[in-house]
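Review form for a predicted model. The reviewer records the input and the model, then writes brief findings.
Reviewer: anonymous (R2)
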Amino acid sequence: MTQTSENVTWLTQEAYNKLKDELEYLSGPARTEIAAKIAAAREEGDLRENGGYHAAKEEQGKQELRVRQLTQLLQNAKVGEAPADDGIVEPGMVVTIAFDGDEDDTMTFLLASREYASGDIETYSPQSPLGVGVHGKKAGDDAEYELPNGKMAMVRILSAKPYAG
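Model under review:
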C-alpha cells in the first residue's frame, strides 16, 4: 500500500484514487457545506457566544489541514503495485506476530502509513519502532524493537499477507 522514504510515498493505484477522491470532495462539496454552516451560524447573532459558529470554524480548520496534507501526499506520491504475497514483511502487509515467541500472545496489524488507519485493523507505521524491527523479516523470523522505556522487545513473525481491505 504505502512505503515512505524521505519525501516519497508509494501508493497502489487504488489507494491513490481513494485519496484523490477524498481531496476532490474536501476541496469542493465539503467546502461549500462548511461555508453554509458558518453563514447560518453567523446569522444567529453574537459570535462571541455562538457555539455553532465556533464549532463550524473549528471543523473548517481541520478540513483545510486535511486538504493540505492530502495535497502534499499526492504531490509526492509514486503509484506502484501492491506488495507481492511472498511472506516478507513490508508496507502494505498484514502482519501477525507473537510476543516473546509465545503463540498464545499474538497481535495482527497492518504495516502502512496513517492514511490507511481504520477501525478494522490496527495500523503501525513503517517508521515506528515495531515497523522498523519487523520490516524485511518473514514467517519464522525473530525481530527486536525498542520499547518506549528503552528496553528491547522480541517478537516472532507468524505471517505476512498483502492487505486486501
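Findings: The radius of gyration is 21 Å.
Further findings: The first helix runs from residue 13 to 27.
Recommendation: see findings above.
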